[in-house]
């Protein structure tokens, strides 16, 4: 078996997370084609409901295994009873993440998807920035340049027009990136504190479900059976994305792996090509190459 090391595992997990979130976006995009339009809050609830169930199953399994192996002593110290600082971080991670999801879903319903995704993809910048400001992690000029390069590649793929007329929606898309970036900083710090990764996902999913439920109920739209199945798929993709990003920032520092989050753009484009006949143009191909070049450059030399 190949020993990837902590950074290699972090890269593998964040790429898996990027694939999961691309899968989620594919199903969310597909949902409205099989029935009436559904509100962003209703989609958000179903996005997190399945992730909540999966996280609960994984958490219970890991806890049962820990107890059988006797790793916690005679009276186990349960990881879902962390110290006060960890609880604060769990709440902040849930709040920032939920605000990010709501803001992103709202923006994508109001402005072109390319513009919304480009603004949302500021998340890796915010993750690295706040890791530096709040956690004191060093960020080299070379690492920041690779992050800028990957963002430029993503912009080439998505080709935002920014024609105006959607200022508030654009601000919401940027808020989505800010919320996600802050949430990932909290995840990284919780990993340092050895909080169970499954519980981090469980807590966030439960919080988001509770936050979106009353908002979804206020304007609930009946769904077809196909839409229910599609949103279950979106939830599965979201679960993979959440578990992946949680593991990634537990294994490695944000400054060394955040650039790989841009593989999400490549996966999203591949889904568009395979299922929506969206053939990439020359600029998109150049953008893919730029993203891969930035990722390869970050991997081959340590900053």
Write structural notes for this entry:
With 303 residues, the chain is mostly helical. The chain has one domain (5-65, 83-144, 161-279). The protein has helices at residues 5-31, 40-68, 84-108, 113-120, 123-135, 141-158, 167-192, 197-218, 225-251, 254-257, 263-276, 282-300. α1 (5-31) packs antiparallel against α9. It is globular, with a radius of gyration of 19 Å. It starts with a helix and ends with a helix. The relative contact order is 0.22.
Q: How far apart are the first and last residues' alpha carbons, in Å?
A: 27 Å
Query: Helix/strand/pairing class, anyone?
Result: mainly alpha
Q: What amount of the residues lies in strands?
A: under 5%
Number of DSSP strand runs:
0
Number of helices: 12
Number of separate structural domains = 1
| Major sheet size, sense and barrel closure | none
Shape: globular
Could you report the average pLDDT, rounded to the nearest whole number?
Answer: 82
Question: What series of H and E elements makes up the topology?
Answer: HHHHHHHHHHHH
Q: Any low-confidence stretches, pLDDT <50, length ≥5?
A: 74-80
Helix content: over 70%
From the alpha carbons, calculate the radius of gyration and give it in angstroms: 19 Å
């Amino acid at each position: 078996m190949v020993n990837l090391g902590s950074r290699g595992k972090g890269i593998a997990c964040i790429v898996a997370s990027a694939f999961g979130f691309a899968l989620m976006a594919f199903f969310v995009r597909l949902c409205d084609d099989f029935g009436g339009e559904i509100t962003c809050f209703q989609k958000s609830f179903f996005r997190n409901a399945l992730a909540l169930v999966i996280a609960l199953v994984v958490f219970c399994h890991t806890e049962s295994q820990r107890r059988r192996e006797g790793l916690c002593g005679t009276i186990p110290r349960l990881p879902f009873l962390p110290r006060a600082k960890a609880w604060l971080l769990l709440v902040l991670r849930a709040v920032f993440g939920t605000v990010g999801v709501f803001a992103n879903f709202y923006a994508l319903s109001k402005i072109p998807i390319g513009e919304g995704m480009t603004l949302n993809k500021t998340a890796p910048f915010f993750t690295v920035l706040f890791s530096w400001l709040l956690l004191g992690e060093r960020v080299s000029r070379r690492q920041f340049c690779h992050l800028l390069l990957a963002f430029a590649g993503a912009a080439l793929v998505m080709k935002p027009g920014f024609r105006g007329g959607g200022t508030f929606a654009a601000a919401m898309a940027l808020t989505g990136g800010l919320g996600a970036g802050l949430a990932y900083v909290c995840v990284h710090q919780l990993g340092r504190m050895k909080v169970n990764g499954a519980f981090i996902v469980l807590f966030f999913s439960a919080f988001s479900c509770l936050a979106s439920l009353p908002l979804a109920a206020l304007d609930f739209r009946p769904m077809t059976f196909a839409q229910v199945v599609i949103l279950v798929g979106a939830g599965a993709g979201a679960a993979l994305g959440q578990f992946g990003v949680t593991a990634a920032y537990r294994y490695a520092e944000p400054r060394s792996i955040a650039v790989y989050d841009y593989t999400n753009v490549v996966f999203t484009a591949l889904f568009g090509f395979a299922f929506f006949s969206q053939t990439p143009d020359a600029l998109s191909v150049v953008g893919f190459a730029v993203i891969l070049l930035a990722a390869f450059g970050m991997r081959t030399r340590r900053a």
